[in-house]
Design a protein that fits this description.
The chain is of the alpha+beta class. It folds into two domains: 297 residues, glycosyl hydrolase (family 31) (Immunoglobulin-like), CATH 2.60.40; 337 residues, Glycosidases (TIM Barrel), CATH 3.20.20. The chain contains 16 helices and 37 strands. The strands form eight sheets. It has an eight-stranded antiparallel sheet. A seven-stranded parallel sheet has the order 18-19-22-26-27-28-29. Strands 5-4-10-16-15-12 form a six-stranded antiparallel sheet, with no helix packed on it. The longest helix is centred in the middle third of the chain and has 22 residues. The radius of gyration is 27 Å and the shape is globular. The two termini are 36 Å apart. This is Alpha-glucosidase. One of its GO terms (molecular function) is alpha-glucosidase activity. InterPro entries: Gal_mutarotase_sf_dom, GH, Glyco_hydro_31_C, Glyco_hydro_31_TIM, Glyco_hydro_b, Sulfoquinovosidase_GH31, YihQ_TIM-like. Belongs to the glycosyl hydrolase 31 family. It comes from Mytilus galloprovincialis (Mediterranean mussel).
Length: 794
């Protein structure tokens, strides 16, 4: 179990000396003779305790309040206890990384009686049950943070609940990467407004589980695709499903809450008077960090928590766009030439099929044997060198699973390096007509072996980066090498181990700052290791639950959880061609223009490339990309400063307006606008067929990026033109980068083509969106079965 902020050894020494007991001082240490000497000695030696107490416990013998920096955090009375324990069993039903989780609770007891003691910087509240107790220990560690432990002295329980004081108008942000809601107290479906198309459990609309998993397909219980995905394999997802959950939130009451471990947990924000936190298993450490404003709260991730900070991104990423292509060496080079001939500045080619392909009855898949396949990519080793000399990097794909037909699996299995089942044999997962083993990242020997494979097969080949995919699939009935933690905790920790494996491979090769790897799965401490995140698998549409709009929430919520560098697949990923869910030119270009104002531009062909418009599909699209990438490159110095701020201070690159304008009632709810750095306000076009858009401008003097003669004071809405290629963007009039922004404003738009024949899809919410014909039903079922059973393209 980790210890937050300050060693428990020093806390024991202070508390024991306050009781007149010097036994905790180590042999050979000079024992101070007065309490003040203890305090001064430890403060000087460790710097871990505050000069004054940040928290207060106000106890009257029958009830108590706990404040942190005068913010009421905990409140307990006999009739309304703040702490509960319970017994039961949690059932995890899993299929291909999708989980249905049910808590079968057969007992829940409020701990009403307590005793209280104060020991200088620490207060201890013993909650009583029969002859046993749960000790609630609150300690001011520094003048900036308060830590809380719960120590069990004999009470038997499976679950623990505790309540944090709330206000009805309070907003809550964070919990890792969310896709539906920035303010986690917002209802999923507004009561009284949405039709009851399907059964929705209203009571759970603001409950967020901490469990890494697939985000789901559709993620909207009113949506046809989500409905049938649920029926087929439980893969539809919901408002709370995410690859990257984290037990951390920021309150508009100006404090940060961070629970620092990997238990399965649930955060219930549905009550006006309190937030209820559910923890399965042993409680670890909780930190409460108060600050005067939202920016300082976000800075505290780096300054006052063990979550760490991200490394600077390689500078070459800002030289152009990474094109996602596949098909072999000749096709890779053909795609590059096609783009370059139209003026697209390409800095990288991402080839996810570099390790080869495997043909199945449901189509072409990747061969999960993570090493260069010369048959698929002949001469790749030399082409990597040639392209690098031209300023074009080559990037690859890897995940922690190995196809049993590959030599890497055979080596790992023979050495006992794979996760086992309960009979002691390798745990094999069916990923669709092929079986895979999972490298056991809890086994130091296996960890080092796989790290070595990354160094040898990827880095030594000359590749400049890779997608480090997956990390959410560890089954809860698996058996791992290190049994220190429950398998549920290891499941939630798995993305961190996977990130650590990749990071160590990069660092030990001396390539940090040159190589980039990006991940979708995460948990607390991922930011210590990954170099970049990405938003995972979005639909190739404008849907709010799982399309382009959801990438905005993904970035801003993750940034408010301490991970401030991310990006997304330009054009989305998940395609259902037979249903008409195909990437249009409009969707591709709207997502590309938004990506200009993010740290990294990278395309993906999608899981059904032939159904999708691609960046290389025609001259018009290529010219649009050439212009957008030119703008992205012109922003290079600005983006560098944004990244440096994130690395140094923890302030994310993409910031919700509430971060800078927390007292503006409109800004706090503007979840589909964001600040890129502190100078640019972005209001991406996230609907089809838009030619103009209303934008909210907070306090300040703002200049319209595409027409600098449009200047206006803030605190109001303004409607501006929004043709493709010019998303609504404003900059601060006082920005030191005004000259750069002014130069960008002079870049002309690409003229529209005389005629277009691009594939199209109905806009979300079209007239037949709630109607299923017999033909559509069959197509839907067949397509979903194909896609969900076989995990799309990989």
């Amino acid at each position: 179990m980790p210890q937050l902020f300050c060693s428990d050894r020093w806390i024991r020494k202070i508390n024991s000396h306050a009781k007149g007991n010097l036994d905790h001082w180590d042999k050979g240490e000079t024992k101070p003779t007065t309490r003040m000497e203890v305090v001064v000695y430890l403060m000087l030696l460790t710097g871990c305790l505050a000069a004054s107490k940040l928290h207060q416990v106000i106890d009257n013998g029958h009830s108590f309040n706990v404040t942190v920096n005068d913010i009421l955090i905990f409140q307990h009375t006999y009739d309304n206890p703040m702490l509960y324990v319970g017994m039961g069993r949690t059932n995890f039903l899993e299929f291909r990384g999708n989980f249905r989780i049910d808590n079968d609770i057969n007992r829940r007891v409020g701990l009403r009686n307590y005793t209280y003691q104060n020991f200088n910087w620490t207060d201890e509240i013993d909650f009583l049950m029969d002859d046993h107790q749960l000790r609630f220990r609150i300690t001011t560690y520094t003048d900036k943070s308060v830590g809380i432990e719960i120590i069990n002295n004999g009470i038997e329980y499976d679950y623990l609940w505790f309540r944090v004081v709330a206000e009805a108008s309070e907003q809550v942000y964070g919990l890792g990467e969310q896709f539906s809601h920035l303010n986690l107290r917002e209802f999923s479906y507004t009561p009284g407004k949405d039709p009851e198309l399907f059964s929705v459990s209203r009571s759970r609309d603001r409950i967020y589980p901490i469990w890494t998993r697939e985000q789901g397909v559709g993620r909207d219980k009113h949506d046809q695709v989500t409905f049938f995905a649920d029926k087929m394999s439980g893969a539809g997802g919901d408002y709370h499903t995410t690859y990257f959950p984290q037990a951390t939130f920021i309150s508009s009451r100006k404090y940060l809450f961070h629970y620092d471990w990997y238990n399965y947990a649930e955060f219930d924000f549905s009550h006006n008077q309190y937030h209820e936190v559910f923890i399965k298993g042993e409680f670890s450490n909780l930190a409460i960090i108060p600050r005067d404003n939202m920016v300082d709260l976000v800075k505290s991730f780096v300054a006052d928590t063990p979550l760490g900070k991200m490394a600077p991104l390689p500078s070459w990423l800002r030289d152009g766009i990474i094109l996602g292509v596949q098909g072999g060496t000749d096709i890779m080079l053909k795609r590059l030439k096609t783009a370059q001939d139209q003026g697209v500045a390409v800095n990288g080619l991402w080839i996810q099929d570099w390790a080869g392909i495997k043909n199945t009855t449901f189509g072409q898949r990747l061969f999960w044997n993570w090493k260069w396949n010369p048959k698929r990519y002949p001469g790749l080793d030399q082409k990597i060198k040639d392209l690098k000399a031209q300023g074009v990097k080559v990037l690859a794909y890897i995940n922690p699973n190995l196809n049993i037909e590959g030599d890497l699996y055979k080596t790992a299995s023979s050495q006992g390096f794979v996760v086992k089942n309960r009979t002691g044999n390798p745990y094999l997962l069916d990923f669709g007509e092929f079986l895979c083993g999972i490298v056991d990242l809890t086994n130091p020997a296996a960890f080092n072996w796989y790290k070595g494979q990354i160094k040898t097969n990827i880095i030594d080949l000359g590749l400049s980066g890779w997608m480090a995919d997956f990390g959410e699939y560890l089954p809860v009935d698996a058996v791992v090498f290190d049994k220190t933690l429950s398998i549920e905790m290891v499941h939630n920790q798995w993305p961190v181990l996977w990130a650590k494996c990749n990071r160590q491979a990069v660092e030990e090769s001396g390539k940090l700052g040159e190589i980039v790897f990006w991940m979708r799965a995460g948990a607390a401490h991922t930011s210590n290791y990954t170099t970049l995140m990405w938003a995972g698998d979005q639909n190739v549409d404008f849907s709010y639950g799982d399309g382009l709009p959801s990438t905005i929430i993904a970035a801003t919520s993750m940034g408010l959880s301490g991970t401030g560098l991310t990006h997304f697949d330009i054009g989305g990923y998940t395609t259902f061609g037979s249903l008409g869910l195909r990437r249009t030119a409009e969707l591709l270009l709207r997502s590309a223009e938004m990506a200009v104002f993010t740290p990294v531009m990278r395309t993906h062909e999608g899981n059904q490339p032939d159904f999708n418009v691609q960046a290389y599909s025609n001259q018009y699209i290529l010219l649009q990309f050439a212009r957008l990438v030119q703008i992205y490159r012109m922003l290079g110095n600005y983006t560098t400063s944004v990244i440096q701020t994130c690395v140094r201070d923890g302030i994310p690159a993409q910031r919700p307006l509430v971060l800078h304008y927390q007292n503006d009632p409109v800004a706090v709810n503007a979840k589909y606008q964001y600040m890129y750095g502190s100078d640019l306000l972005i209001a991406p076009v996230i609907q089809a067929n838009v030619t103009s858009q209303k934008v909210y401008l907070p306090q300040g003097e703002w200049v319209f990026l595409w027409n600098t003669s449009t200047q206006t004071a803030g605190n109001k809405y303004i409607t501006v033109p929004a043709p493709i290629g010019q998303p609504p963007v404003f900059y601060q009039k006082t920005s030191p980068y005004s000259a750069t922004f002014n130069a960008i404003s002079k870049i002309p738009l690409v003229p529209p083509p005389p005629t277009t024949n691009q594939p199209s899809t109905k806009a979300p919410g079209s007239s037949n969106s709630g109607v299923l014909t017999a033909t559509n039903s069959v197509l839907l079922l067949l397509t979903l079965y194909t896609q969900l059973m076989y995990n799309f393209s990989i």
